[in-house]
Design goal:
Layout (H helix, E strand, L loop, with lengths): L1 E4 L2 E4 L7 E7 L2 E7 L7 E5 L10 H7 L4 E5 L17 H15 L4 E6 L1 H12 L4 E7 L14 H16 L5 E2 L2 H11 L5 H11 E3 L5 E3 L15 H8 L6 E6 L19 E6 L6 H4 L1 H13 L6
Helix pairs in contact: 2-3, 5-6
């Protein structure tokens, strides 16, 4: 149903593409795309950091006949407004998703999230367990336990202030041509095909008036909170998830195996798969394998069978 163009993927007239919509959270105008079929169960797709809603196009193409698919641009990403003050915390993202789902008012919902989007998906599901039927998190458990180094609070505050001051003077990188930006996209994920990279770049960048190409995301989304990733809070939250959870990891990824490091054991009802030949972006790197795991998971009962 997709045809290739020099700029990426174009939807055929028969297939159709998503429509754009907006909603508000904390006075920010936030964007999402809707793939139609409003009479089907709602499936929310949440992208990762410095990504955008249209990274899910391949997944949405394959699953839209069975679901009403909605994919938001997180604040500071894609076509959503940047956060005034440059604050991007997991709690803010989760609030944004809660308000979007309230606006859609189609409970219960099924959620798939990647990386940061996976963390948001799990936090929302833990906060409102009765509203989520099933949740899929692609490398969404945050940093591996071995990567978390505890430092004194005053040291973390000094580092954060220094980091924020540095970002104030940082200017977005500009690319002379779209091809240069596509090459940078493929540098970030060598598993991508040229068609995938171009599609992601077209929707993740804009052409400025001087003719250069710039990424849409706010550079402040790179900042880290001065407060530690609280392992105890995370485990408590994940333990509140009552619906089945599917945890996915790319075998070639930097992320650690959540079964081996013990984090998966907190979930009361979960399945886990390492996906061979995939890095951090499992749904891009091994789309068919990813869809196979997800469809099998969705077909199972609430007890995972």
């Amino acid at each position: 149903m997709f045809r290739r163009t020099r700029y990426g993927l174009a939807m055929s007239a028969e297939f159709g593409g998503p429509t754009s919509h907006y909603y508000y959270s904390q006075r920010l105008k936030l964007h999402y795309v809707d793939w139609g079929n409003a009479d089907k169960p709602l499936l929310l797709l949440i992208h990762g950091g410095r990504d955008h809603a249209r990274n899910w196009d391949w997944v949405a193409r394959e699953m839209r006949e069975d679901f009403h698919i909605v994919a938001p641009d997180l604040r500071g990403h894609g076509d959503s407004q940047w956060s005034i003050g440059g604050s991007y915390a997991l709690i803010d993202y989760t609030l944004d998703i809660a308000l979007l789902l309230d606006a859609l008012d189609e409970y219960p919902v099924t959620i798939i999230g990647h990386s940061l989007g996976g963390a948001i998906s799990l936090q929302y599901t833990a906060t409102y367990p009765d509203r989520v039927t099933k949740v899929v998190a692609i490398e969404g458990l945050g940093p591996a336990p071995g990567m978390i180094k505890e430092r004194p609070a005053q040291e973390r505050m000094r580092y954060w202030i220094k980091e924020m001051k540095g970002f104030a003077g940082r200017r977005p990188r500009r690319y002379a041509t779209l091809d240069e930006a596509v090459d940078r996209m493929r540098d970030a994920n060598p598993h991508l095909s040229e068609v995938q990279a171009r599609h992601l770049t077209v929707h993740g960048s804009y052409r400025d008036e001087d003719g250069t190409y710039v990424w849409k995301f706010d550079n402040y989304t790179r900042t880290t909170t001065p407060y530690l990733f609280n392992k105890n809070d995370a485990r408590e939250l994940w333990g509140e998830i009552t619906c089945p959870a599917l945890l996915l990891r790319g075998s070639d990824s930097w992320a650690s195996d959540p079964v081996e490091d013990g984090r998966a054991a907190v979930f009361s009802n979960y399945a886990f798969h390492n996906v061979d030949g995939a890095g951090h972006w499992v749904h891009h790197d091994q789309l068919d394998v990813f869809l196979g795991h997800v469809r099998k998971f969705f077909a199972q009962g609430s007890n995972g069978r």
